[in-house]
Amino acid sequence: MAIQIGIVGMGLRGRQWVQALRRLSGYEIAACVDVDSEALQEAAAALRIPAQRCYARLEDALDDARPEAVIVATSIDHHVAPSRTVLARRIPLLVEKPFALTLRDARGLVAMASEAKVPLVVGQTYRYTGMNQTLRRFLRTGAIGRTGMVAYQVCRGNAHIRSAVTALPDGILWETAVHHIDLVRYVLGQDVVAVTVESFALPWSRLGAGASVSILLTFADGARGVYTATYDSRPASWLRIVSERGILMPWRRWLVLLDGGRIPRIVGTASHLVPPEAALIEQLARAMRTGEEPECSGRDNLNTVAVLEACARSAAERRPINPRDLFDEPV
């Protein structure tokens, strides 16, 4: 029997989830929800979603369609409320990143899922691209020794920045850095124990303060990271991982090692794995079947949310902050 899925939010990401689920076997779209009737109608027409499966209120969708699991794909500033509604009904949940904009709210959702005994998966899609899976596997072989430094530069471009992002004081952290900081945590298998952050704007910025960010990271094993991101540029990005016996550099489909030889060596090729959405929804389905903790669980992702909140505080207070200290604060 196909798992009946409800999707909340029919903007770009919600539509992508509809398309992703239709390419997979074992899932059926039971309901689509959006408080914006125009957006809902446009999505229904474009994706040929039957009118009887479209709802303006989440509660009505849960009552009428009775989905077995729900995907929350609303704008990043509206993840918490629908997630609470779903978890209060004891329904398994997959919520887009960031699943909350504060550690307090994120911990609250994890507690609700634990009490309801249902899985909570966070949609950190970058973990499950072919290249990033290849990178993680190679680092785990230990072939180039310990990792000492990570340099990550992201030039996002601002042509398609949504208003929900620009309205946030630290939008670049919650919309963009959330991908990359979570990814580095994941591929290194290390949590962050200190951040020092500067938020600024490039001289030609049309978005103003906060459109660019520079982050110094310290990992639990002593490795360091340098992450910079901006919305005020043409899009491009690059990643370098400095290890004892060489420097790793993802480039297109290839994982390249610079180890002092004349010619860089290809040490990995990104395979055409299942799409990231498929990997995430399968984690949710497996957790529903077996009760096992998903790899990309809300509990694990608390550490990513803590780093992001620590970054926002560090930028505002102009001092280093240990994300772990945030867990000592009352929920």
Instruction: Summarize the amount of helix as a percent range.
Output: 25-40%
Q: Main β-sheet, in a few words?
A: 8 strands, mixed
The CATH class of the largest domain is Alpha Beta
Q: What fold name goes in the CATH topology slot of the largest domain?
A: Dihydrodipicolinate Reductase, domain 2
- The global form is globular
Runs with pLDDT <50, length 5+?
none
Q: What string gives the helices and strands in order?
A: EHEHEHEHEHEHEHHEEEEEEEHH
Q: Count up the helices.
A: 10
According to CATH, the homologous superfamily of the largest domain is Dihydrodipicolinate Reductase, domain 2
From the 3D coordinates, which CATH architecture of the largest domain would you assign? Answer: 2-Layer Sandwich
Using only CA atoms, what is the Rg? Answer: 20 Å
Structure description:
It is globular, with a radius of gyration of 20 Å. The protein has 331 residues and is of the alpha/beta class. β2 (27-33), α2 and β3 form a beta-alpha-beta unit. The chain has helices spanning 12-22, 37-47, 58-64, 80-88, 103-116, 130-141, 163-166, 171-188, 276-290, 298-317; strands at 3-8, 27-33, 54-55, 69-72, 93-96, 120-123, 147-155, 192-200, 212-219, 224-230, 236-243, 246-251, 254-258, 265-269. The model has no long low-confidence stretch (mean pLDDT 95). α4 packs parallel to α5, α6 crosses α8 and α8 (171-188) packs across α10 (298-317). An eight-stranded mixed beta sheet has the order 8-9-10-7-11-12-13-14. The protein has a six-stranded parallel beta sheet with strand order 3-2-1-4-5-6, with helices on both faces. 44% of the residues are buried. The protein has two domains: 3-126 and 275-296, Rossmann fold, CATH 3.40.50.720; 129-271 and 306-326, Dihydrodipicolinate Reductase, domain 2 (2-Layer Sandwich).
